[in-house]
Design goal:
100 residues; 434 Repressor (Amino-terminal Domain); two-stranded antiparallel ribbon; 5 helices; 61% helix; Cro/C1-type_HTH; DNA-binding; DNA binding
């Protein structure tokens, strides 16, 4: 199962590290507790839309960029767990089964 909050946390952490910011700096800029941001980055808490906007502002990254990265990560995980079709011949005709 794909967990959106875990992937969102991964993207936010990556953006923060890429910018060379500490949790403390993001916390001060976003006016959100350091512990709460840490829980979001670890995928333990859900971020509200307002909180997410505040974090994106603190990181100076457009919300659309963060959501696009998360969407791409979701697609990769979905593809990794999707069933693979396996062609199987049944009495002269082909039937497609899937391996899960």
């Amino acid at each position: 199962m794909v967990l959106f909050r875990r992937l969102l946390g991964d993207v936010l952490r990556s953006q923060r590290v890429e910018r060379g910011m500490t949790l403390r700096e993001v916390s001060a800029e976003a006016r959100v507790s350091l512990g709460y941001i840490s829980e979001i980055e670890r995928g333990q808490k859900e971020a509200s839309s307002e909180l997410l906007a505040s974090l994106c502002s603190a990181l100076e990254v457009p919300l659309s960029d963060v959501l696009r990265e998360v969407s791409d990560a979701v697609a990769v995980e979905e593809a990794a767990i999707a069933p693979t079709p396996i062609p199987v011949a049944v009495r002269g005709r082909e039937v497609v089964a899937s391996a899960a």
